[in-house]
Amino acid sequence: MSVANERGERLSELRQKYGREPLPPRAEGTADTPREAQPKFRGLDSGHRACQGCGEALAARLVMESAGPDVMIANATGCLEVFTTPWPQSAWRVPWVHSLFENAAAVASGMEAAMKAKGRNTKVLAFGGDGGTYDIGFQALSGMLERYHNILYVCYDNEAYMNTGIQRSSSTPHSATTTTSPAGKERMGKRHLKKDLLSIIAAHHIPYSASASVAFPADLQRKVRYAMGIDGPTFLVVHSPCPLGWRHASALTIEVARRAVECGLFPLVEVERGAVTNVMPIRNVRPVTDYLELQGRFAHLMKGGDARAEEERAHLQALADYNIGVFGLKGEGEDPVDTGGIAAVGRSGRPAGRV
Amino acid sequence: MAVLTRGAFAEPGTSLDFKTGNWRSTEKPSHYHAKAPCHAACPAGEDQQAWFAKLQEGHPEAAWAELVAANPLPAVTGRVCPHPCETACNRATLDGALAIHNVERWLGDEAIRFGWAYPVSEPAVDAPDVAIVGAGPAGISAAYHCLRQGLRATIYEASPETGGLMRSAIPRTRLPRDVLDAELDRVLALSGITLELRTRLGRDVSLDELQHKHAGVLLAPGCQSGKAWSVDGAVPADLHEGLHLLKDFVDHGALPEAGDVIVHGGGNTSMDVARLMKRSGAASVTLVTASGLPGPGTEPADEINVVPRELEEALEEGIEIIDHATINRLIMKGSRVTGVEIMSLRKLPGQDGRPHRVGFEGTERVVSVDMVIPCIGEEVDAEGFAELVDHGYLRPKDRLGRLNRDRVIALGDARGDRGTVAAAIGDGRLAVSALAAELAGQPDPAPDLRTEMKSAGLNTTYYDHLPRATSPKRAVAERTFDTEIEGDIGRAAAMAEAQRCLSCGNCLACDNCWSFCPDNAVIKTVELALDGSHYLFDLDYCKGCGLCAHECPTGFIQMVPEEAGAEQPA
To answer: Taking the domain B228-376, which CATH number applies?
Structure first.
């Protein structure tokens, strides 16, 4: 007891000498409900109409938490736009504009110019799905990057046109089945490869572009915060599973996203000025079949005794191995920020001694 | 209430008017505190997960207080317990079970060093007084738990010392006497406990007297007499029975001289005796046991019943073990043993379904020895209260230990199926809770029927690799009769080891559910969450996707049918 007392006295002494004034008690009425008292910024609130286990809703929420309140958004047509704003309601708590499918980046560019003209620091975000980014909105995006607008563009990549009924996009991975690339006698799902968008973005020589995954929120939010601090165009692609389109159980959204990273099919990399500056090492590399087996869109690849299926599985494995080789994803020993370390939790959050 | 706006705009956050909770069709998330396997396995009834949680928060004294809610002698059990908690630990499937006994021991030693006080207060002056027969671990635990239940306790001990077998039969190499004394004295110094030494049931005081004088009687006399041992009627003239040999050694430090020794038995006594004989200079010591050695092919029920690290140390010290075997014949020269015939055997289910020992013809071999020490178990020394003893033991009629007399409860080794200090301590707690309920006119305390959290229910992705702490151990050549063999792991290692606890079945406050809910339907609130977690589910918005349950590292979130309450999962 005396030890504790001594320590307490010493502490109050130090506080008097060096300490700050304690914060005033919270004003009455600032938080009426526990929901309002949550210690995080709720830029995207409940009541939105996303499906059960929606990876995109989760990703947008995580991005908004880190991007903070002083932002405004241009949102391309797509799931995110549809499920968050069923008129006359909105799930957003920041200024938010619905653009067309193809021009989120162009609208955001105008918003950014307006903010600059008014002398305001409000950061402009542009949100789009993979359809609105990889395909339809690509030229507007390229223009935005080239004109060097101070905008963070976030692409929520669920690898097909989910909103209109699961049509293939240029982001759909090779051999996934969609309604416009069905697996059958002629083809084993999509014939072409997933577009390497990040390399194209990087070729614009912008300050920062990166890929992230909903399975690793700490990493995703660090990347958002980093991009928010840059005065110039930045780009983030977030792998966001879609239980409906990928045909997996809604509880498995994170599991699927995690396995995509751990098998190497979705590498988490950061590119600055065209050069890869950081990758998230994979602690234990898994075979791609671990990723494929959870999803109905790859079910045709998991049939035993089918030579075509075997070939496609081998092809996807080769693509994953290629990523691992090109980006050097294989971890060397245990690292606190590899796929195993960054997921680690302890009592009350991160493990002791970690930031 | 939705407000229709005139233009194509909407007010911020108005989607909250739309309660997506009615999308759930079959299941909703629920907090369910399953038993951690360490707790389920602990004979003393400790909730290791609960006290490790306090250590993880950095509060050793609070952890100790949580620990002694069940077990008043942690410095003792941290040293002598075979720790079934560690065998059950789910972390064994990851990177090694937690070193629970080392941390328990460290906490126990810290409590002694800093003089931490038990979280009990003196019972009322007119509180019922309970008689406890025997001051071994069961009796001491019972007395302590009487105080926790607001009862007074009077301990009647036949011998002039307290501690029972802990003092008389556990070598100092496993349990230093200053540690034992410190913990026993701390219990016995509590006001509300009276100690009557040199008072033997049946000689100095009768059961009727005790029943008349006290509100209830708890019998914890222990097992004092060795079972009769012979091989086909042959008994060597210089027979040393294991427990007596051990007690003589502990009392006087004397061991019989022998060259080649066979110890017959498969419990901690046999292990202690074998190691003592080896250390005292026997040329060879061989343990013959009907049980098997732990290993992948051995059923848990068939495993030798000793502290795992003791077995390890014994092998280091050069003890040979012949498992699945028995002594078939003694080879005598006159009335002295010169050899034994050993035969392989197995415990196999017989026609009545119960295990029988089956010896195998053709596996006999002869070993020449000059001493055989039987350690085949002990029974109650029934002198003075033979009417209570049935075939060597006090055999209770229910799980709480009640005998066929009003408010007379049996606990500890005397029940015949116990055999560890921890089990005796657990008996003390259960017996007192039963008696206290009976005295208050309440029904028996209900058994804990919660399900146990198995490793398959955890999401181990979220646990980082952390190797198990190693405990310092004296080298074989430096092991003596007086100094402890296993050392203290120290504060830093103990606190680091605590961080390895997976918190099976209980909230870790890791924020996973809060971070991963796509619908913002998890509310973080320490004030309103009454179930020990930090979170509430906002079922107005929860769509029932099950993400939180899948990503919960500890299995604390489970999906339950929509109509069920927050209790047992289906």
So the answer is: 3.50.50.60
